[in-house]
Amino acid sequence: GDSVTQMEGPVTLSEEAFLTINCTYTATGYPSLFWYVQYPGEGLQLLLKATKADDKGSNKGFEATYRKETTSFHLEKGSVQVSDSAVYFCALSRSGSARQLTFGSGTQLTVLP
Amino acid sequence: NAGVTQTPKFRVLKTGQSMTLLCAQDMNHEYMYWYRQDPGMGLRLIHYSVGEGTTAKGEVPDGYNVSRLKKQNFLLGLESAAPSQTSVYFCASSYSGLNSPLHFGNGTRLTVT
Question: pLDDT tens digit string along B38-52?
């Protein structure tokens, strides 16, 4: 079946450091890929998405590129801020349908001033 | 703009008790979902609905029932709570089912003793 594997956390960085959170997936066909973010005490919200190979999703300084050849969708940001502290979830949908969303286990990011 | 509102925020139940979690959205979304979030396991879909009067099973439906009598509301019921149902429950909605972002509520933390 479909699966998403994220790098284990927690990840702790200093402000302005470079961030990479690894995400690899297993799925047949060409799934749509997503990054969701969960700030403390809140529900998840969509951060960015990519629906086909080589697409780059971007939002709020975060980027992720859909790499079919390595089945990866790594999240990157060039300079993190304290306000980026949150849990980040990678997810895929084989058909693009939310009914078939498979989430990774989440990566806790803490950014220190 | 309330978005997706879940009630209650916290609840403690004894084994065998019943309860209903309420989810309300004011975005006129057709699709609504109930997830549970457990440590190290990401989010798993319990039940979902593609429109008023419809419901369907997700990945982990056992022990739960749902109803969607009105388009804006999606209820999740536990008829006889078990300790294995201790979790954080999230409701979400989306405009359509295809690559449409999910909008999440802030969650309900349920403990079953």
Answer: 988 889 999 999 999
